[in-house]
Amino acid sequence: MSSPLQRAVGDTKRALSASSSSSASLPFDDRDSNHTSEGNGDSLLADEDTDFEDSLNRNVKKRAAKRPPKTTPVAKHPKKGSRVVHRHSRKQSEPPANDLFSAVKAAKSDMQSLVDEWLDSYKQDQDAGFLELVNFFIQSCGCKGIVTPEMFKKMSNSEIIQHLTEQFNEDSGDYPLIAPGPSWKKFQGSFCEFVRTLVCQCQYGLLYDGFPMDNLISLLTGLSDSQVRAFRHTSTLAAMKLMTSLVKVALQLSLHQDNNQRQYEAERNKGPGQRAPERLESLLLQEHQEEIEGMMNALFRGVFVHRYRDVLPEIRAICIEEIGCWMQSYSTSFLTDSYLKYIGWTLHDKHREVRVKCVKALKGLYGNRDLTARLELFTSRFKDRMVSMVMDREYDVAVEAVRLLILILKNMEGVLTDADCESVYPVVYASHRGLASAAGEFLYWKLFYPECEIRTMGGREQRQSPGAQRTFFQLLLSFFVESELHDHTAYLVDSLWDCAGARLKDWEGLTSLLLEKDQNLGDVQESTLIEILVSSARQASEGHPPVGRVTGRKGLTSKERKTQADDRVKLTEHLIPLLPQLLAKFSADAEKVTPLLQLLSCFDLHIYCTGRLEKHLELFLQQLQEVVVKHAEPAVLEAGAHALYLLCNPEFTFFSRADFARSQLVDLLTDRFQQELEELLQSSFLDEDEVYNLAATLKRLSAFYNAHDLTRWELYEPCCQLLQKAVDTGEVPHQVILPALTLVYFSILWTLTHISKSDASQKQLSSLRDRMVAFCELCQSCLSDVDTEIQEQAFVLLSDLLLIFSPQMIVGGRDFLRPLVFFPEATLQSELASFLMDHVFIQPGDLGSGDSQEDHLQIERLHQRRRLLAGFCKLLLYGVLEMDAASDVFKHYNKFYNDYGDIIKETLTRARQIDRSHCSRILLLSLKQLYTELLQEHGPQGLNELPAFIEMRDLARRFALSFGPQQLQNRDLMVMLHKEGIKFSLSELPPAGSSNQPPNLAFLELLSEFSPRLFHQDKQLLLSYLEKCLQHVSQAPGRPWGPVTTYCHSLSPVENTAETSPQVLPSSKRRRVEGPAKPNREDVSSSQEESLQLNSIPPTPTLTSTAVKSRQPLWGLKEMEEEDGSELDFAQGSQPVAGTERSRFLGPQYFQTPHNPSGPGLGNQLMRLSLMEEDEEEELEIQVESNEERQDTDMQASSYSSTSERGLDLLDSTELDIEDF
What we know:
The chain is built from 51 helices and 4 strands. The strands form 2 sheets. Strands 1-2 form a two-stranded antiparallel ribbon. Its main location: nucleus. It is found in: Chromosome; Nucleus; Chromosome, Centromere.
């Protein structure tokens, strides 16, 4: 059956002849904008694909346009209360007030009644009624101009549109479709509903009149070709919605015609006397369908084909969304490769919104199994692109792409290869939960569902047999272990939670697999299965994803909270009896016992009492003690201490039992520590076993001291004795020193906690201070230890302790703690700064691929260095250390920017908030220190040519940019900084009689980086100040020093600085042009400051349109050839690409051309173009052939306008292989 759209009638040419087919805003068309109304028929035929060429060449009888009769037919009696007004004369000069727009904007009236009222008014006076409809669409575009009867009679559509464009003098770039505010919020929906209702109410009569619809389509086609964005956007939306409604009407006609045809055939088979004469009705339906097809053909060729590649992404999205609707509702005609190629090409669109609409349109097609047979050619051509969109940089696009692949997987068997699926599997570990969840659903349908199919009975899912559950967990284990994509099962469980949550919550199946004696699970599989058990329990009890996975939800619903509580109770009741058994079986393996101990945090611990399960609590406490005594790994000890902390809550009735078990365990560990400590203090040598036992005992006590108050066991004194011996003799192994330091630290903090809760005596405060000071001295001694781990541990504990006992501790009404405030001495501050230089600011080795063990160690070392630097910076900001010490950090800002840039930047920002003047002096001090070090190392000769000096200039530039755009606020600071810098540069003079320049004079070049931040008046004063200072320095006549020349040039009044240049780089999205802006010293951004010295850049052109055109016959021919592609080109993957134009992009300096602000008619032109297409970097980039000729650019230039500044991301799927639109 041939497509109805391919049987279009010949009067389509007439319907389109009044509109312009040259796309004023398209980056492909090069026809001059002054000829928008000429040659439309030929250009349209040359500008189209082969879809309609055959149908246009057919010799079908034209459908004559039906003008309304001269006599107005008798209208129906107006409804009571109707807004219909009687037209007194068709020759009135002005049309009546348009109430359609107000009613649609209000969105309060019934659209059907509104359309019926308009139909009544149209029947009274057809010309006036049609003008009312036309002015409704004009007013919906935001234009205050109207189409009068005289204009309608004497002017063509293109002339009317040109006249309306000249009257488009709005003050804002907003128009109804995009205008902000509650009054416009529902306008687009009401507007679309009006168009739909209009076609629905006219489908049985007025739709086939010829006059209103043909002229309306012609008007919308012309408006969609306008340079004014508001016209183009609104008319395209109206045309596409009109097309969608016509498609529904055509579908109904087609179905009705098929029914009539079957009835006709049935009647023909009857005898002559039994036949019913229904052939006339069938012929009438055929004529109606041809008229509908003609209108659809006109809209598709006149609007869609041009606008689907418009520079405005909203317009492209509208076109793609509507063509998807056509394909779904009328698949017989539209679901062909001739139409599918438009969606396929647009999959490469630059903008997120358009790509989302493409994928959603494809989801509607692939979701219907009956339609997939027609998508085979399209799938083979664009499958790779659809698979690659899983890695799209926009998460919503990637999510929709994965869901599209799920539909392909379900409805088109064998299309997705293993390689295609393997590209989706890693996404289950993505940080975005929506994307990971979609990938988890894909994984479930690909790997798990075929083997573990859940059969539905009675509309409800029935639990599968234990064998099916076992198969599911085995497949899950196999995927996780064999894929080697990730080390944490929590993210895999979270990804599968939405689609396989019921299976993952089968804790009975999980525990039975783990407790089986004859299980065939390896060590890795057992560990993975335990992690799956713990992850699913945590997911069910806590209800939030793992750390680092982003969700857009703020909280759980009441239903989800109830489900969470039920799952928590069910989990607790099942695992409380089994947890001691699991601990007993895996107690020897630290990797397995750690997550099992973490299970206790998922329990509802009240069930121990309410369920009479105290005996299982006793068993758990026994197993916990055995695990703690058996292991010394920090992870196991931390998990055990936390589990015991949860049980030792005084609110529980079993608190006494848990507290007794804790006391037993700590007594056992303390006795061991006392015995081993005596052996260490008395003997001069310990074997490895004794050292290991003592270190293990200290680690266990340290872990429990972190979570429990062990003050009554008095561990402070013996640990101090141990540390003192280590400092005095150096005979204590470092494995023992590390946990001993932590024990003393926790002892001091617990003592402080007791004192802070109640009014402490002076003796208690004095005792705590003495302990704290003694421990600080021990840590200070450890900073010079030979072992790096001891040094770093001492630094971390010392920085934390100094921060705790800083002046901040008395804030909040705790003035009684003032005797505990401690300020470190100068020697300690110096040692802390020296430690930072030796252990943090060191040049790291280059990382490889990141997979080797060495790379992982380097990353861990980097994290440790970042922790050390953050601790030092906190001491600076909280006033513990002198702020001048920050110069040791700031001077490494540029060199170590990749490793510590965020920490140093935050420190600099906070320091400036504390004291702006002092912070500026510290920045200058950092530059002085670096300069002095370089001078001492290389001498004054050729200093400014060294690579290290160039790095110093970059650092000075970064410091200057850190002051921000507040030029007036920083005025005094900048002047002070320059004066201090000039003094330093001339602080050391050359020997008397020597003509050599002062050794510090090159510092002026660093100072010149701050010159753009100065006001013109301050530059003059600084030039005078520099001249006065140079009078005391002897200089050879006629040979000025280079640094002085450079610095003077930076202070020259002709320098293009922020406050002297009224023309700043334009905003990338300025809605309107308001004429030359006044100089504003406050509105200077950091990026502008970097380009202040580019004084040759011309200003932005005042009058700008996105459709700046020049005739280009060759380009027009190229575009015709491009549109004359065949289905063979589509099958081979041909796309409308203008590759020869891609290399002609020019830099941003060509975006600006001189203009004359005082030119004639400037104000009127500005107002006229206030709603015209603006020169936006994200939409269009203008190519400059010469100073007098400007040409169009294709959509590729629009796509890359923003990447010209940030560079092309070769890993971004949306920036590669982007086609022209």
